[in-house]
Amino acid sequence: MTTKRFLSTGILLISLTFSSVPVQANEVNMYMGAITMSYARFNAAQTIVDARKALASMRTAAVAARAQKPNALANVASNNPKLKMYQLEIDKLIAEIDKTSKLVNAGKLAQAKTEGKKILQLRDEGHAAMKH
């Protein structure tokens, strides 16, 4: 990733953080954006160190997103089935990130990148589940 693109992304995240939109409503979107950017960094990683850092960032954002409620569920009770489904989908994502991280830590970067494609599949499945 070029420095210019990295700085642009950082500025975008900072501006989202300090925008006038209510913070809680923005947090899930911000974390999802961070997951997407971290996945792109992971996918482009040429070294174990870079892959490890990207996956760690991705996991941190996923854990943070799980702790928040998406906009559509902002006013539901904590035992709401749709909220529980959202949390379950994030749990699946975290588990896949952990599985991919184990491969990276074992020095199997190519295999980790193949396994890591399941992260995108889980994202798509999670988004589809939330739309129903």
Write a structural description.
The chain is an all-alpha fold and 132 residues long. 79% of the residues lie in helices and 0% in strands. The chain has 5 helices and no strands. Helix 1 (3-17) packs antiparallel against helix 2, helix 3 (48-66) packs antiparallel against helix 4 (81-105) and helix 4 runs antiparallel to helix 5 (109-131). The radius of gyration is 15 Å and the shape is elongated.
| Largest sheet report | none
**Oligomerization status of the protein chains:** single chain
Mean pLDDT reading? 85
Approximate strand percentage: under 5%
Tags for this model:
132 residues, 79% helix, mainly alpha, elongated
Layout of helices and strands, plus pairs?
Elements lengths: L2 H15 L5 H22 L3 H19 L14 H25 L3 H23 L1
Helix pairs in contact: 1-2, 2-3, 3-4, 4-5
Structure, briefly:
This protein has 132 residues and is an all-alpha fold.
